Amino acid sequence: xxxxxxxxxxxxxxxxxxxxxxxxxxxxxxxxxxxxxxxxxxxxxxxxxxxxxxxxxxxxxxxxxxxxxxxxxxxxxxxxxxxxxxxxxxxxxxxxxxxxxxxxxxxxxxxxxxxxxxxx
Length: 120
Known about the structure:
Distance between the termini: 35 Å
Order of helices and strands: EHHEHEEH
CATH architecture: Orthogonal Bundle
Number of helices: 4
Helix content: 40-55%
Strand content: 5-15%
CATH topology: Arc Repressor Mutant, subunit A
Number of domains: 1
Number of strands: 4
Radius of gyration: 15 Å
Largest sheet: 2 strands, antiparallel
Strand order of the largest sheet: 1-2
Shape: elongated
CATH superfamily: Winged helix-like DNA-binding domain superfamily/Winged helix DNA-binding domain
Structural class: mainly alpha
């Protein structure tokens, strides 16, 4: 798994999420979807609400379903049988490994950044 996320960079989220600008926010839609599904299967609306609680970012439907399509194509999430009109998704084993690697990279970056701030 080493090297998967060594060059991980978060893309810009301007005009992608609705957040409180005073609080700051984090937005990497595929990573947010994986993190949401790490706690169990969810359908789209449940993911939007979970992600909003998790980090304060509210993904729009187009952003969410674009991320879902990419993650499904990569084999990192998979659809479950529909429930009424809703289609739940779950994270796959590979998706969990990718999430773990990306979060470890972000954790290292966060520690380094906070250490630099302490020096100011």
